[in-house]
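Our consortium's second objective concerns turning raw sequence data into structural hypotheses that experimental partners can test. To show how far this objective has progressed, the report includes one record in full. It was chosen at random from the queue rather than selected for favorable results. The single chain below, 341 residues long, was entered without modification.
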Amino acid sequence: METVKPTNWPDLPFSFAWIGGIAFTFFIALLGYLLVKIPGFDHIGQLACAILMAVVYRQFLGYPEIIRPGITFSSKHLLRFAIILYGLKLNIDTVLHDGIGLLIRDAGVILFAILLTIWLAKLLKADQNISLLLAVGTGICGAAAIAAIAPIVKSKDEDTAIGVGIIALVGTIFAIGYTLLRPILPLTDVDYGIWAGISLHEIAHVALAAEPAGEDALAIGLLAKLGRVFLLVPLCFIFMSWMKRKSHSNDTTESKIEFPWFLIGFVLMSLIGSYVLGQSIPVSEEFLLGISTITTWCLTAAMVGLGLNVSLHDLRTKALKPLVAMLISSICLSILAYFII
């Protein structure tokens, strides 16, 4: 359902429409931030709350066409900027020196999650694009992985938003479920942290689930999770190669696969965070926390822009079967991870 701009709406100069659209996405992001302050919503997270609010806005008030340029900028360019900043969360040195064994298991669970989700989606005759995004998000690092893969596989904005919203909500439910299961599972704190790190969807979900088990569990859980983030870059290039072969196999005119330059930025920021900041250039924890906060806000504003493209009708008709496939694969992933820790 596309909303047509009413004829009585004035045409804004591009600069005002651009600034207004960006400001609007950050405003909805702010509302999402305030919403998580309410008990009950605090476990859902700012990202999921903001996406839901954007979707609700679209259904009741329509798409704000007058500020479309700014909203498009948020959903495209702010999204890539957030992915680049996200690279600072990845300490390559730590992963390579202390997490080789975890990295091997990470590769296994990524392959398992993606192949199982895609197979289940075909079995259920689910929407293949949304299912692919959910498969990658489940296997690697949730919203960040979906955002990185989406332009490579030429995903529609609304499909990307649906995938991100589902992964954020389901991942939160799983993280809470892990904390409830922890007291009754025969696992040491470290093993529990590894289990969370190699099976939960986002870094935030791993932190939420592992933190109650103590600092050791949290540290090893985040290390295991960072191994999966580390594998995001090679996976993106695998998908680029797959898309090129797919376009060659079609008789239609080949569509150009845009090189994901933001991944180069992601790698550079990872190298800077791993070998420069804190070593050659000393920085405070407050500085790193500030960068993390900027990353979260930019990613949330970008997701608001994507969420405004979601039609509730499409959400009902397209998302249910991919959601079922993702839930089954997530449960199977949790079981597999439990037995390989």
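The partners drew two points from this record. Residues 312-340 form the longest helix (29 residues). Residues 1-9 have pLDDT under 50 and may be disordered. Both points have been shared with the crystallography group to help prioritize constructs.
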